[in-house]
C-alpha cells in the first residue's frame, strides 16, 4: 500500500468508519459497503470525495481536508483493487473451503 493509502486507512480507523460501513461485507450496516465504490461506474473517486464531508442521511458531518479526502480515496482504491464484494463467482468446496475471485 502506498503511504497515502496507509494515511487513508488510519483516517478510516480513527473515525471508526467500520461502525457504519463495510469492506467485504464486514462492518456496520447503517451505511453501504464501500469495497468497490471507486470502480463502480455510477460512483467513483469524485463521488466518494463528495460524501466524505457532506454525508447522507445519518452520516456525521466530517471536516476532512482535501488531502485527507485524497488519502481516503487512495485507501478505498487499494481495497477496490483486491477483489469483489459481493463475490458472485465464489466456489464452495465439499471440505468447507471457499475459493473466491480476485481482481
Structure report:
The protein is mainly alpha-helical and 103 residues long. It has one domain (3-81): Cytochrome Bc1 Complex, Chain D, domain 2, CATH 1.10.760. Helices cover 37% and strands 8% of the residues. It contains 3 helices and 4 strands, in the order αββααββ. It has helices at residues 3-14, 45-54, 66-81, and strands at 22-23, 26-27, 91-92, 98-99. It has a two-stranded antiparallel ribbon with strand order 1-2. A hairpin with a 2-residue loop joins β1 (22-23) and β2 (26-27). α1 (3-14) crosses α3 (66-81) and α2 (45-54) crosses α3. The mean pLDDT is 92.
Q: How is this fold's topology laid out?
A:
Blueprint: H1 3-14, E1 22-23, E2 26-27, H2 45-54, H3 66-81, E3 91-92, E4 98-99
Antiparallel strand pairs: 1-2, 3-4
Helix pairs in contact: 1-3, 2-3
Name its key features.
globular, 103 residues, mainly alpha, Cytochrome Bc1 Complex, Chain D, domain 2, 4 strands
The major sheet is characterized as:
2 strands, antiparallel
- Helix content bin: 25-40%
| CATH topological fold name | Cytochrome Bc1 Complex, Chain D, domain 2
Question: Could you say what the CATH architecture is?
Answer: Orthogonal Bundle
Number of domains: 1
CATH superfamily: Cytochrome c-like domain
Summarize the structure in short.
The protein is mainly alpha-helical.
